[in-house]
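Batch queue: ligand-bound targets. Current item pairs a single chain with zinc ion. No template structures supplied; prediction is de novo from sequence plus SMILES. Inputs echoed for audit trail.
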Amino acid sequence: MSENLYDTVVRGGTVLDHASGLNQVADLAIKDGKVAAIGDDLARSAANVVDATGATVLPGLVEGHTHIFEKVSKVGAPQDEAHLRRGVVAAADAGTAGASTFPAFRTLVVEPTVMRIVNFLNVSVLGLIDFRYGELLNPDTFNVDDALATAAENPDVVRGFKIRLSEDVLGDKIVPLLEKAINLGEQAGLPVMVHIGETALTLPEILDRLRPGDIIAHCYTGKENGILDENGAVLREVYKARERGVMYDSAHGKSNMSFKVAKPAIAEGFLPDILSSDTSGRNWRGPVFDLVTSMSKFLALGVPMSEILPRVTTVPAKYLGLDVEGYGSLTVGGPAHVTVLKEVGATVLPDAAGNTIEAPRLEPTAVFVNGVSHELTEWRGNAPSA
Ligand SMILES: [Zn+2]
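Prediction returned. C-alpha coordinates below.
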Protein backbone atom coordinates (compact mmCIF):
# COMPACT_ATOMS: atom_id res chain seq x y z
CA MET A 1 0.00 0.00 0.00
CA SER A 2 1.33 3.38 -1.01
CA GLU A 3 0.98 6.79 0.62
CA ASN A 4 -2.54 7.79 1.55
CA LEU A 5 -4.20 9.11 -1.55
CA TYR A 6 -7.05 10.73 0.38
CA ASP A 7 -7.38 12.73 3.59
CA THR A 8 -10.78 11.26 4.44
CA VAL A 9 -13.06 8.67 2.94
CA VAL A 10 -16.74 8.52 3.84
CA ARG A 11 -17.28 4.82 3.37
CA GLY A 12 -20.23 2.79 2.20
CA GLY A 13 -23.10 5.27 2.37
CA THR A 14 -25.76 5.85 -0.26
CA VAL A 15 -24.45 8.90 -2.08
CA LEU A 16 -27.28 11.13 -3.29
CA ASP A 17 -26.77 14.18 -5.46
CA HIS A 18 -29.68 15.83 -7.17
CA ALA A 19 -27.59 17.85 -9.63
CA SER A 20 -25.90 14.80 -11.16
CA GLY A 21 -28.64 12.28 -10.42
CA LEU A 22 -26.18 10.18 -8.45
CA ASN A 23 -27.87 7.60 -6.21
CA GLN A 24 -25.60 4.69 -5.35
CA VAL A 25 -23.81 3.02 -2.50
CA ALA A 26 -20.25 4.31 -2.79
CA ASP A 27 -17.28 5.73 -1.00
CA LEU A 28 -16.70 9.47 -1.16
CA ALA A 29 -13.08 10.56 -0.93
CA ILE A 30 -11.86 13.98 0.20
CA LYS A 31 -8.45 15.47 -0.51
CA ASP A 32 -7.29 19.05 0.15
CA GLY A 33 -10.82 20.20 0.92
CA LYS A 34 -12.25 18.90 -2.33
CA VAL A 35 -14.26 15.88 -3.38
CA ALA A 36 -11.47 13.78 -4.89
CA ALA A 37 -13.46 10.73 -6.00
CA ILE A 38 -16.76 8.92 -5.66
CA GLY A 39 -16.54 5.17 -6.25
CA ASP A 40 -15.77 1.76 -4.87
CA ASP A 41 -13.01 0.67 -2.51
CA LEU A 42 -11.55 4.10 -1.86
CA ALA A 43 -11.14 3.61 1.89
CA ARG A 44 -7.96 1.56 1.58
CA SER A 45 -6.02 4.65 0.59
CA ALA A 46 -7.44 7.00 3.21
CA ALA A 47 -5.74 8.58 6.22
CA ASN A 48 -9.09 8.73 7.95
CA VAL A 49 -12.24 6.69 7.36
CA VAL A 50 -15.76 7.71 8.38
CA ASP A 51 -18.17 4.82 8.25
CA ALA A 52 -21.49 5.72 6.59
CA THR A 53 -22.91 2.22 6.23
CA GLY A 54 -26.69 2.44 6.27
CA ALA A 55 -26.55 6.23 6.05
CA THR A 56 -27.13 8.74 3.26
CA VAL A 57 -24.32 10.95 2.02
CA LEU A 58 -25.62 14.28 0.73
CA PRO A 59 -24.27 17.60 -0.44
CA GLY A 60 -23.95 19.82 2.63
CA LEU A 61 -27.42 21.05 3.55
CA VAL A 62 -28.44 24.59 2.60
CA GLU A 63 -30.92 26.23 4.99
CA GLY A 64 -33.04 28.63 2.97
CA HIS A 65 -34.63 30.53 5.87
CA THR A 66 -33.41 30.97 9.41
CA HIS A 67 -32.70 33.60 12.07
CA ILE A 68 -29.12 33.85 13.28
CA PHE A 69 -28.24 37.14 14.93
CA GLU A 70 -27.77 35.96 18.47
CA LYS A 71 -27.17 38.52 21.23
CA VAL A 72 -28.37 41.40 19.04
CA SER A 73 -31.79 39.99 18.09
CA LYS A 74 -34.15 38.25 20.48
CA VAL A 75 -35.07 35.84 17.66
CA GLY A 76 -31.48 34.93 16.82
CA ALA A 77 -30.55 31.28 17.24
CA PRO A 78 -26.89 30.31 17.67
CA GLN A 79 -25.54 29.82 14.17
CA ASP A 80 -23.19 26.93 14.90
CA GLU A 81 -25.08 25.06 17.59
CA ALA A 82 -28.43 25.14 15.76
CA HIS A 83 -27.10 24.80 12.20
CA LEU A 84 -23.55 23.68 11.44
CA ARG A 85 -23.57 21.19 14.29
CA ARG A 86 -26.85 19.84 12.93
CA GLY A 87 -25.59 19.29 9.39
CA VAL A 88 -26.09 22.67 7.71
CA VAL A 89 -23.20 24.17 5.72
CA ALA A 90 -24.84 27.31 4.30
CA ALA A 91 -27.77 29.39 5.49
CA ALA A 92 -29.83 32.43 4.60
CA ASP A 93 -30.90 34.68 7.42
CA ALA A 94 -34.42 35.90 6.67
CA GLY A 95 -34.62 39.51 7.73
CA THR A 96 -33.17 39.48 11.22
CA ALA A 97 -30.83 42.33 10.25
CA GLY A 98 -31.82 45.61 8.60
CA ALA A 99 -29.57 48.27 7.12
CA SER A 100 -28.71 49.85 10.50
CA THR A 101 -27.91 46.53 12.17
CA PHE A 102 -26.28 44.90 9.13
CA PRO A 103 -22.71 45.95 10.02
CA ALA A 104 -23.06 44.03 13.31
CA PHE A 105 -24.59 41.06 11.47
CA ARG A 106 -21.66 41.01 9.10
CA THR A 107 -19.07 41.29 11.89
CA LEU A 108 -20.66 39.02 14.49
CA VAL A 109 -22.34 36.38 12.34
CA VAL A 110 -21.14 36.25 8.73
CA GLU A 111 -17.40 36.74 9.13
CA PRO A 112 -16.52 34.51 12.10
CA THR A 113 -18.67 31.57 10.98
CA VAL A 114 -17.54 28.47 9.11
CA MET A 115 -20.92 28.18 7.43
CA ARG A 116 -21.51 30.33 4.37
CA ILE A 117 -24.08 32.90 5.43
CA VAL A 118 -26.14 35.19 3.23
CA ASN A 119 -29.26 37.16 4.04
CA PHE A 120 -32.52 38.72 3.10
CA LEU A 121 -32.14 42.25 4.42
CA ASN A 122 -35.13 43.44 6.40
CA VAL A 123 -36.73 46.43 4.66
CA SER A 124 -36.85 48.15 8.05
CA VAL A 125 -33.46 49.57 8.99
CA LEU A 126 -34.00 48.03 12.43
CA GLY A 127 -34.36 44.44 11.33
CA LEU A 128 -36.20 41.90 13.45
CA ILE A 129 -34.53 42.72 16.74
CA ASP A 130 -37.38 42.26 19.17
CA PHE A 131 -40.56 40.43 18.14
CA ARG A 132 -42.59 42.37 20.70
CA TYR A 133 -42.19 45.63 18.77
CA GLY A 134 -43.02 45.51 15.06
CA GLU A 135 -40.13 46.79 12.99
CA LEU A 136 -42.40 48.70 10.57
CA LEU A 137 -44.87 50.23 13.03
CA ASN A 138 -42.98 53.41 12.29
CA PRO A 139 -43.07 53.17 8.48
CA ASP A 140 -40.20 55.67 8.21
CA THR A 141 -37.90 52.83 9.28
CA PHE A 142 -38.39 51.51 5.71
CA ASN A 143 -35.56 53.61 4.29
CA VAL A 144 -35.05 52.75 0.63
CA ASP A 145 -31.72 54.55 0.28
CA ASP A 146 -30.22 52.73 3.25
CA ALA A 147 -31.46 49.34 2.03
CA LEU A 148 -30.13 49.96 -1.48
CA ALA A 149 -26.74 51.11 -0.16
CA THR A 150 -26.38 48.09 2.14
CA ALA A 151 -27.28 45.72 -0.69
CA ALA A 152 -24.91 47.43 -3.12
CA GLU A 153 -22.02 47.42 -0.63
CA ASN A 154 -22.51 43.79 0.41
CA PRO A 155 -23.35 41.78 -2.70
CA ASP A 156 -21.58 38.74 -1.21
CA VAL A 157 -24.15 38.61 1.59
CA VAL A 158 -27.38 40.43 0.66
CA ARG A 159 -29.34 38.18 -1.68
CA GLY A 160 -32.79 39.73 -1.27
CA PHE A 161 -35.10 41.70 1.00
CA LYS A 162 -37.57 40.57 3.63
CA ILE A 163 -40.88 42.05 4.65
CA ARG A 164 -43.07 40.57 7.36
CA LEU A 165 -46.69 41.10 6.38
CA SER A 166 -48.21 40.87 9.82
CA GLU A 167 -50.45 43.46 11.35
CA ASP A 168 -48.38 43.43 14.53
CA VAL A 169 -45.31 44.28 12.43
CA LEU A 170 -46.67 47.00 10.16
CA GLY A 171 -50.11 48.02 11.38
CA ASP A 172 -52.63 48.70 8.63
CA LYS A 173 -50.24 49.97 5.92
CA ILE A 174 -50.07 46.54 4.39
CA VAL A 175 -50.49 47.25 0.70
CA PRO A 176 -48.35 50.40 0.46
CA LEU A 177 -45.48 48.77 2.35
CA LEU A 178 -45.70 45.56 0.31
CA GLU A 179 -45.63 47.60 -2.89
CA LYS A 180 -42.72 49.65 -1.58
CA ALA A 181 -40.83 46.42 -0.85
CA ILE A 182 -41.42 45.12 -4.36
CA ASN A 183 -40.23 48.44 -5.80
CA LEU A 184 -37.11 48.18 -3.66
CA GLY A 185 -36.45 44.69 -4.99
CA GLU A 186 -36.96 45.96 -8.51
CA GLN A 187 -34.49 48.81 -8.03
CA ALA A 188 -31.87 46.54 -6.47
CA GLY A 189 -32.43 43.66 -8.90
CA LEU A 190 -33.06 41.33 -5.95
CA PRO A 191 -35.96 39.13 -4.85
CA VAL A 192 -38.30 39.92 -1.99
CA MET A 193 -39.30 37.37 0.61
CA VAL A 194 -42.80 37.95 1.96
CA HIS A 195 -43.88 36.41 5.23
CA ILE A 196 -47.63 35.71 5.09
CA GLY A 197 -50.38 34.69 7.43
CA GLU A 198 -51.26 37.54 9.69
CA THR A 199 -53.11 40.20 7.71
CA ALA A 200 -56.54 40.67 6.22
CA LEU A 201 -54.99 40.65 2.75
CA THR A 202 -55.77 37.42 0.92
CA LEU A 203 -52.94 35.37 -0.53
CA PRO A 204 -54.05 36.02 -4.15
CA GLU A 205 -53.92 39.76 -3.40
CA ILE A 206 -50.32 39.33 -2.25
CA LEU A 207 -49.35 36.98 -5.10
CA ASP A 208 -50.69 39.48 -7.65
CA ARG A 209 -48.02 41.92 -6.59
CA LEU A 210 -45.05 39.53 -6.64
CA ARG A 211 -42.55 39.21 -9.45
CA PRO A 212 -40.93 36.02 -10.75
CA GLY A 213 -38.30 35.07 -8.17
CA ASP A 214 -40.06 36.68 -5.22
CA ILE A 215 -40.78 34.16 -2.51
CA ILE A 216 -43.63 33.42 -0.11
CA ALA A 217 -42.44 32.27 3.32
CA HIS A 218 -44.59 29.92 5.42
CA CYS A 219 -46.57 28.30 2.59
CA TYR A 220 -48.15 25.77 5.00
CA THR A 221 -49.19 28.28 7.63
CA GLY A 222 -52.35 27.36 9.50
CA LYS A 223 -53.22 31.01 9.97
CA GLU A 224 -55.88 32.83 7.97
CA ASN A 225 -55.37 33.58 4.29
CA GLY A 226 -53.12 30.65 3.57
CA ILE A 227 -52.83 28.49 0.45
CA LEU A 228 -56.01 26.42 0.86
CA ASP A 229 -59.52 27.30 -0.27
CA GLU A 230 -62.61 26.58 1.82
CA ASN A 231 -62.71 23.01 0.49
CA GLY A 232 -59.16 22.28 1.54
CA ALA A 233 -57.70 22.43 -1.97
CA VAL A 234 -54.73 24.59 -2.95
CA LEU A 235 -55.90 27.87 -4.48
CA ARG A 236 -55.59 28.08 -8.27
CA GLU A 237 -53.84 31.43 -7.86
CA VAL A 238 -51.06 29.70 -5.92
CA TYR A 239 -50.28 27.45 -8.89
CA LYS A 240 -50.65 30.32 -11.35
CA ALA A 241 -48.13 32.40 -9.42
CA ARG A 242 -45.75 29.42 -9.39
CA GLU A 243 -46.12 29.08 -13.16
CA ARG A 244 -44.80 32.61 -13.59
CA GLY A 245 -41.88 32.04 -11.24
CA VAL A 246 -43.08 32.96 -7.75
CA MET A 247 -41.37 30.69 -5.22
CA TYR A 248 -42.65 29.01 -2.03
CA ASP A 249 -40.65 28.42 1.12
CA SER A 250 -41.97 26.09 3.82
CA ALA A 251 -40.33 28.04 6.70
CA HIS A 252 -41.74 26.00 9.57
CA GLY A 253 -41.11 28.51 12.37
CA LYS A 254 -42.63 28.73 15.78
CA SER A 255 -46.15 29.26 14.49
CA ASN A 256 -46.24 28.72 10.73
CA MET A 257 -46.29 25.04 9.86
CA SER A 258 -49.60 23.22 10.10
CA PHE A 259 -49.84 19.53 9.25
CA LYS A 260 -53.54 20.20 8.60
CA VAL A 261 -52.56 22.45 5.70
CA ALA A 262 -49.45 20.57 4.59
CA LYS A 263 -51.13 17.14 4.38
CA PRO A 264 -53.85 17.95 1.82
CA ALA A 265 -51.55 20.29 -0.11
CA ILE A 266 -48.83 17.64 -0.38
CA ALA A 267 -51.42 14.99 -1.20
CA GLU A 268 -52.49 17.01 -4.24
CA GLY A 269 -48.85 17.55 -5.21
CA PHE A 270 -48.12 21.02 -3.88
CA LEU A 271 -44.56 20.95 -2.49
CA PRO A 272 -42.48 23.97 -1.44
CA ASP A 273 -39.67 25.04 -3.76
CA ILE A 274 -37.42 25.44 -0.72
CA LEU A 275 -37.73 23.31 2.40
CA SER A 276 -36.52 25.45 5.27
CA SER A 277 -36.85 25.37 9.01
CA ASP A 278 -37.17 29.05 9.97
CA THR A 279 -35.16 28.16 13.05
CA SER A 280 -34.97 30.97 15.59
CA GLY A 281 -34.12 31.68 19.18
CA ARG A 282 -37.78 30.99 19.94
CA ASN A 283 -37.99 27.53 18.42
CA TRP A 284 -34.60 25.84 18.17
CA ARG A 285 -35.38 23.89 21.33
CA GLY A 286 -38.72 22.89 19.76
CA PRO A 287 -41.03 22.60 17.95
CA VAL A 288 -38.68 23.34 15.02
CA PHE A 289 -35.31 22.19 16.41
CA ASP A 290 -33.40 22.32 13.12
CA LEU A 291 -33.48 21.70 9.37
CA VAL A 292 -33.09 17.91 9.55
CA THR A 293 -36.12 17.73 11.86
CA SER A 294 -38.12 19.66 9.25
CA MET A 295 -36.90 17.16 6.64
CA SER A 296 -38.07 14.32 8.90
CA LYS A 297 -41.53 15.89 9.06
CA PHE A 298 -41.73 15.99 5.27
CA LEU A 299 -40.74 12.32 5.14
CA ALA A 300 -43.58 11.63 7.57
CA LEU A 301 -45.94 13.64 5.34
CA GLY A 302 -45.17 11.22 2.52
CA VAL A 303 -42.57 13.21 0.61
CA PRO A 304 -39.78 10.90 -0.57
CA MET A 305 -36.11 11.73 0.01
CA SER A 306 -35.68 12.20 -3.75
CA GLU A 307 -38.10 15.16 -3.54
CA ILE A 308 -36.73 16.50 -0.26
CA LEU A 309 -33.12 16.49 -1.48
CA PRO A 310 -33.27 19.27 -4.11
CA ARG A 311 -35.27 21.47 -1.72
CA VAL A 312 -32.45 21.48 0.84
CA THR A 313 -29.53 21.46 -1.62
CA THR A 314 -29.67 22.45 -5.31
CA VAL A 315 -32.71 24.73 -5.25
CA PRO A 316 -31.80 26.95 -2.28
CA ALA A 317 -28.15 26.97 -3.40
CA LYS A 318 -29.11 28.24 -6.84
CA TYR A 319 -31.73 30.65 -5.51
CA LEU A 320 -29.20 32.18 -3.13
CA GLY A 321 -26.44 32.29 -5.74
CA LEU A 322 -24.35 29.77 -3.83
CA ASP A 323 -24.31 27.09 -6.52
CA VAL A 324 -21.48 28.94 -8.25
CA GLU A 325 -19.44 28.58 -5.05
CA GLY A 326 -19.97 24.82 -5.10
CA TYR A 327 -22.81 24.55 -2.58
CA GLY A 328 -25.75 22.24 -3.09
CA SER A 329 -24.06 19.52 -5.11
CA LEU A 330 -21.35 16.87 -4.90
CA THR A 331 -18.92 17.22 -7.78
CA VAL A 332 -15.54 15.58 -8.11
CA GLY A 333 -13.12 18.50 -7.99
CA GLY A 334 -15.64 20.71 -6.19
CA PRO A 335 -15.53 21.75 -2.53
CA ALA A 336 -16.20 18.91 -0.07
CA HIS A 337 -19.31 20.22 1.67
CA VAL A 338 -20.93 16.99 2.80
CA THR A 339 -23.66 16.01 5.23
CA VAL A 340 -24.24 12.40 6.31
CA LEU A 341 -27.70 11.54 7.62
CA LYS A 342 -29.06 8.41 9.22
CA GLU A 343 -32.63 7.40 10.03
CA VAL A 344 -32.84 6.72 13.73
CA GLY A 345 -36.31 5.27 14.08
CA ALA A 346 -39.78 6.65 14.57
CA THR A 347 -40.21 9.73 16.70
CA VAL A 348 -43.36 11.73 17.40
CA LEU A 349 -42.81 15.26 16.08
CA PRO A 350 -45.05 18.32 16.54
CA ASP A 351 -46.04 21.00 14.04
CA ALA A 352 -46.41 24.64 15.09
CA ALA A 353 -49.99 24.11 16.30
CA GLY A 354 -49.31 21.15 18.55
CA ASN A 355 -50.53 18.48 16.12
CA THR A 356 -48.16 15.55 16.00
CA ILE A 357 -46.98 13.03 13.45
CA GLU A 358 -44.89 9.89 13.76
CA ALA A 359 -41.78 10.43 11.68
CA PRO A 360 -38.71 8.42 10.68
CA ARG A 361 -36.35 10.90 12.27
CA LEU A 362 -33.19 11.87 10.40
CA GLU A 363 -30.07 12.55 12.38
CA PRO A 364 -26.76 13.93 11.09
CA THR A 365 -23.80 11.66 11.75
CA ALA A 366 -21.10 13.75 10.05
CA VAL A 367 -20.70 17.15 8.43
CA PHE A 368 -17.79 18.47 6.38
CA VAL A 369 -17.13 22.02 5.23
CA ASN A 370 -14.32 22.30 2.70
CA GLY A 371 -13.30 18.80 3.70
CA VAL A 372 -13.03 19.64 7.40
CA SER A 373 -15.16 17.58 9.75
CA HIS A 374 -17.14 19.49 12.39
CA GLU A 375 -18.42 18.21 15.67
CA LEU A 376 -22.15 17.51 15.87
CA THR A 377 -24.53 18.12 18.70
CA GLU A 378 -27.30 15.90 19.97
CA TRP A 379 -30.91 16.39 18.84
CA ARG A 380 -32.48 18.83 21.26
CA GLY A 381 -35.73 16.93 21.23
CA ASN A 382 -33.95 14.47 23.49
CA ALA A 383 -33.35 17.17 26.07
CA PRO A 384 -35.94 18.28 28.62
CA SER A 385 -37.81 21.10 26.89
CA ALA A 386 -36.70 24.59 27.85
ZN1 LIG B 1 -38.55 33.64 9.56
